[in-house]
Design goal:
heterodimer, A: alpha+beta, three-stranded antiparallel beta sheet, 24% helix, globular, B: 6 helices
Chain lengths: 238, 92
Amino acid sequence: MSQEPVMIFIDDIEVEADPDVTIIRAADAAGIYIPRLCFHPDLPPGGHCRLCTVTVNGRPQSACTFPVSDGLFIENNTDELNAYRRDIVEMLFVEGNHHCPACEASGNCELQAMAYRLGLVAPTMPYLRRPRELDASHKDVYIDRDRCILCNRCVRASEEIDGKYVFGLQGRGIHQRIAVDGEHGLADTDMTVTDRAAEICPTGCLTVKRQGWTTPVGQRPYDLHPIGTDIEERRSTA
Amino acid sequence: MHEILTEITVGSGDIESLDLLMELGEVIKDTSQCGLGQTAADPILTTLKNLPGLYEARLASDDFVPAFSIDEALAEACAITGQKPHGKGSRR
């Protein structure tokens, strides 16, 4: 079915978009970066992290779930929205225990890179210090819930790509945790190291064992370019 | 937010915790997905706006209340060495 493209405005830039995509995909295609953590191009949108919140015709909406339609007026890169995003990232930091300097994902962590991009130097909010369990039962993959930001990516990847339903979310609100479909932890599930879910974690929560620190500092993905640069380059070269 | 509010009600909050409370409330209100989240912060935000006196009356009076007395902690060392602390952090 061929449909006419629609025109939307993101930060006063006119963007042509397919009518059946969401705002974040239209912006990505046009080379405009909307900060995000839970969104992944290979997965259905979740709308969990709230980082991609933009204003659509003046109302806050999550760009990963909102479908485009003709003439939408979208604000993305404003001081107010970026301040919200910084606060959200800060809350994620103080809610968990993100020990960046000792973490295998450092330099390849979307949460860390997002904090740098948004200018979050050090958290000022009080740390919650809630107990979160580590699951190292599996021979190839471990879960460190201290580093989980509840983006739901592993849940969706396991369902949609691996077809396994290994992960799920358990509990509500501040007590929510990643749960696994196995009585004695991850080892009891049919998770394998080749699963997409094993590498889709934006932080160091779900990590493949024996692969840490193989990339030298300085060559890690976010060492040289802030997160989102790859998308923004599409615009400058287009 | 609950922790900050607890801090204020027991009388150990400072003026900055009010600002943080307000800021967090606005973030939650504007970025929430559903009506529950969009209104969850309202009780605190509206009382902060309309009845600020109730909050301010419970704030700690001093800007900064140290958790321990540096002079008491150093008293023994001072007595042994016969020296008094000096420098930036000293209160003398």
